[in-house]
Records
---
Amino acid sequence: MTPRGEPLLWLQLIALGVLPLEALLLLLVLAGSDPGPLPGLERLLCWAIGALAPSLLLARRPADVWSLLLLQTPLRGRRELQRRLSRLQAAPGLALATAGGAALALPLLWWIDGHAAVAAPLTPFASCPRLVALLLAALLLVVMLWQWQQLIQSLWLLSRSPEVVAATRPLSLEELEQQRLCLGLPLLLPEPLKLAEAVAPPEATPPDEARNTPAAEPPVEPERPPEAQIPEAPPDTQAPEAPPASPPSPAVELPASESPDTEVPSSESPDAEPPVAEPSAVESVAVEPEQPPEEAEGADLDQEIG
C-alpha cells in the first residue's frame, strides 16, 4: 500500500513548471495598464483578494489532492488508499506551508508590478483598465496559491511510508465533502501505477570458494528389509521315516512287437517326440495266482516231517 502508485500525485508535480509560467503571465497582465495614484494600496488590495482570503479558506478546507481544479476523481469512485491519503492532508506543516506561500505572494506581486513596464511592448493586454488588470492579477494569484498547496501536499504524501499509510483510518465520504475543497468535474478515474519491484541478482561464488565447497552427496536409498529366509533344518535332525514300500508289482511281459534293440527316444533331446502307441499293440499281463497262506504253511510242515 504505497502512495507512489497513484498517478494524480505525480501529475500535481507539474506545478513546478507551471508556476514560473503563471508568474510571467502576471507580468504581461500588469504591463497592459498604467499604475494609479496609489500603486501600493492597489497592490495590497490585489494581494488580499488573490492570496490572503484564499489562504484562510484553504487552511480551513485544504484543496483535495485528487482534484486538478477543473477535473477531479468522483467521491464514490475513490479507492481505500486514496481516502487514507486524504486524511493525511490534515497536517499542521501543510497549513504553515500554505500560509508561507500566501506571504511570498505579496513581495512577488510588488516586484512584478514595479517592473511591468519592461513588458509593455509585448503584452497582449494593451490599453486595459487598471481595475480589470488588478482583478485578473488576483485571479492568477488564486490559481498560483492552489497549485502551491497541491505541490506541497503531493510531495508530503509521496514521502509517506507504506506502514504510515496502512495505519491511517480512511476518510469517509461525508468527511470528504465537509473537510476538503473538491473542485472540478468528476471525470478522472485513473488506474493505479504498476511499479516493478527490483529483484536482487544472485551473488556469484568466487572460484576459490567454489573449489572448497563440498560436492553434493548422492541421495541415500533407504535400506530394504531382508527377505524372509526359510530356516534350514539342523544337520542332526533325522529325516522323517519313509512310508513302507508297496509290494512288488507283478511281472509285465512286453509284447512281441517290441524288441530290446528298439531305441528309446531320450527325454533330454528337445527335438525328440514322445512315442505314439499303435492301436494294434496290446499289452498282455500274466498274473500269477496267489496261494492262500494256510496251504503254504501246511506244505512246509509236511516237508519238515517227511
---
Amino acid sequence: MSEGTDDAESRLGRIERLLETGEREAAPAWRRATRGEPRWAVTAVILVAVALQLMLPHRLALQPFWLLPALELALLAGLTAANPRRVEPRTRWLRLLGLALICLVSLANGWSAARLVVGLVDGTEGTDAGPLLLTGGGIWLTNVIVFALWYWEWDRGGPMARACGHQQFADFLFVQMQSPEVAPPDWEPRFLDYLYLSFTNSTAFSPTDVMPLSRWAKMLMMLQSSVSLVTVVLVVARAVNILH
C-alpha cells in the first residue's frame, strides 16, 4: 500500500515538474530569466553624453567643467570592467554604481539646462543664433539620453532584475508585449528600445507606441516632456528672434 502511494506521489511530482517546465517555456522572454543584454549600446550612448557635455560652453557647466565628465568616465570604466560584455546580475554594488553614474549625467545636464534657461530669460545668453541652436540641441539630446537611462534602469527593477525575471509586471508596455506574434520568441526590451521611447517622448511631448503603466513611469515621462518643451520653445524662440 505504501509502495503504491509512493509511486503515485512520485508520478504526481513528475507531472507537476513537467507542467512547471512547460509554463516557463511558454512564458515570453521578457518575463523569464534570460542572459543579460550586451553592454555596448549603453556604453556608447553614455560616451556620447559625456562628449556633448564637454562641447557645451564652459560657463554653463558646473565648475571645474571637467570634473563631472571625469567622474562619469571613471564610473563607466568601473562598470565596464566588472561586466565587460553583458549587463548581468553579479553584486548589488554594480547597480548602485550604475545609479550613481546616471545621477551624475543628470546633474551635469540639468545644471546646464537651468543655466541656459536663466540666461535666455535674463538676456545674457543667445546673442548668436548658430551657437545657441547648437548649445540647445546638445542639451536637448543629452536630456534624451538621461531619461533613456532612467527608464532603462528603473523598468521592472533595472536590467539586472529583468535578466533574472524577478518582476512580472512591466512599467512600460511595448508593442511586442501586446502583440508577441510580431516579434521573435526571444524578444525583450533592451537599452535601444528605451532610447527610442525617450526620443519620441521628447519630440511628441506624449507617449507614442510605448505606454507607461506605473505611476512613476507616467510622472517621469511628464517631467521629460516638460523639460523638453521648455528647452525647445525658449531656444527656438530666441533663435528666431535673433534671425529676424
---
Amino acid sequence: MKIERIELLHLRMPLLHPFVTSIGSLMEKDFLIIKMFSGGHVGYGESVAMPNPGYSEETTGTSVHIIEEFLIPLLFNSTINHPDDVSNIFAPIRRNNMAKAALEGAVWDLYSKKNGVSLAHALGGTRKSIDVGVSIGIEKSLDELLLKIERYLADGYKKIKVKIKPGYDLEPLAKIREKFGFGIPLMADANSAYSLQDLTHLKKLDAFKLMMIEQPLAFDDMIDHAVLQKELSTPICLDESIHSAEDARKAIELGSCRIINLKIGRVGGLTEAKKIHDLCDNYNVPVWCGGMLEAGVGRAHNIAITSLANFTIAGDTSASDRYWKEDIIQPEVIMSAPGKIAVPTKPGIGYELNEQVIEKYLLGKKTFTNN
C-alpha cells in the first residue's frame, strides 16, 4: 500500500460544558485530524494530545512537530503491507505515542476501506454494539453532579465515572450512593491526585463499593499501586501508567491493578491496543476504552476497538452530543439503544467527515506529498 498524500488539519472546537479534573479545566479541544490518501481511498486519524502537557508529556504542538519531521517521512519511505507494520516503522522514534496513533489510525482506516471491511472487522471485533458509560468532571456543586447523573442514568448509560481529588471524594461519592443506592455502576477517577501517604483515607473508598478507582497514584507508578491494591478491596484500574503491552504485563504480574483502561492514543495506536487487549484476556484482566474528549474520528476508532471480546466494561465513548454542539463527522455518533452504540459495518470507520464543520473550526492545514 503506497501512501500518496497526507493532509494534517489543526482544529479547535468548544466543548458544550467545561470539563474539570484534578489536572485542570478544559473549555475547548485543540486537536489534529489526519487525512491519508491512497488509490482513490481516504483514511482518517485523530490525535488526542491536549494543548498542555498535563495528562501526558505530549501536546498538540509536539505532535505536529513529530508527525511532520519524523513520522511522515518514515511512512513515505516504507512499504506497508498491513497496518501492523506501522509499529515497526515507527519503532526508531521513542514514545510520542499520540502522534504515532494519529497516523497509524489513518493507515488502519485506509487499509479497511481498501479491503471493503469495517475497521471493527479488520481488528477482529465481534460485537454488533458496544456498551457505553459517561465520564463526569468535577462539578461546581454536588446538586449539579447529582442532576447530571440522574439525567445520564435516564439515558441508559451503563457506567458512571466521576472525577475525584483530595477534598472532593468522600462527600460526592456518599451523596451519589445516598441518592441512587448501590445498584448503579459507579467508579472514581483520580488522575494521579493521591500518594501512599493518603492510604488511610483511600481505604475509606471501599465503603462505596465502586467498580474501580482509576489511577489513584502517580502517573508513572506501578510499585506503589501494588502496595495500595493489597490494602483495598476496590479494584485499581491503571490508565496513565500503561503505555505498552509490556507495561500491562508488568503491572498485572506486580499486582498493581485488576483492570486496565485502554486508550488508543496513550499506547501508540490500534496495533498495540490489540496486543494489550489480548494479553489482558490471557490474564483474565478486563479492559475498557477510556476517553480523551475525542471528536468524531477518534470516537469512531474507539467504537471499533471496543468491539473486541475482552472489552467487558462499558467505556467512555458516549454520543457526540455529550460533548459537542456539532461533531466533525456525519452521521454523528448516537446511541442505538439506551446505553449502547451500534458498531458501524460500512468499510473503514463507517463515518464521513463533515467538511462544513471542519472548515468552521479549522486553524490550519498542511499537505505532504509522497513523490
---
Amino acid sequence: MPLSPLEHDRRYGELDQVIRAYAGQSADDTPNEPSVALTAYLRQTWHTRPWALAVAERQLREYAADNPPGRLRLRLGEFYAIPDVGLPEDETRPWLYCLADHIKHSIEQGEVPPPAMPATHWEWQTRFPELAQFLGGWFSQDMPDEFDDHDAAVDGYRTTTDPHLVARLVGELHELLALDLDESDYALAVAELGMEVDPPAPYSPSGWLALVAGRLSAPRAEYGPGAQADAP
C-alpha cells in the first residue's frame, strides 16, 4: 500500500526538504564544493532547525543505498521517487552521497553559511513563509479582479486571517526590510515570494512593504483603505 504521511515523513521527510531546495537550481555539487542550492539549504536549516541536518544526512544515505528500488515497491507506492534534478540516472546515487558528505562535514566542522540574502526560490519561500502566503495569495495576477485596490486586498487579508499569523507577517516584513537591500533586490524578493502585480504608485517595493507593515501593526480600528500614511 502507498506510504502514509507519517511513514513518508519518518523515512523521507527531510530528504524531501533537501530535494525541494533544488527547484529551479542546478544539481552541480562536487566533492569539494556544495551547490548554491545546498548552501541555501544549509544556511536556512542551521539557523532554524539545526537538529534536522543529522536527519537529512541519514535519510540521504539510506535512500542512496536503496536506489533504485525494486519495481514492486515502486508499483505499490512504498518508495519516495525524488523529482528530476537534471542528472542522468546513474549519477543520482553518487550525487546523493555527495550531499550527505557535505552535510556531515558542515555538522562535524561547525561550518555554518553566514546570514545573507536568500539565494534561491526555495530559500525565499522557506525564510518568509507567511509573507509568501500573503503576497502569493492576495497579490496574484487576479488581485485587480477581486479587490478595488491594494489597500482593499491588505484589509481583506487582515480581516480574514488569525491575528497570530498577522503578527508573524509583520515580523517577516520587518526582517525583510532590515536586510537593507537595493530596490532591485526588493523587487526580486516580492516576485520570488509570489507577488504578480506592481506596488501601487508612487511606492517602490520596499516603500510599499514598509507601508503594509505599519498598517498591519496599527490597531484594527485605525486601519482601512482610507487610512492616511506618509510614503517612507
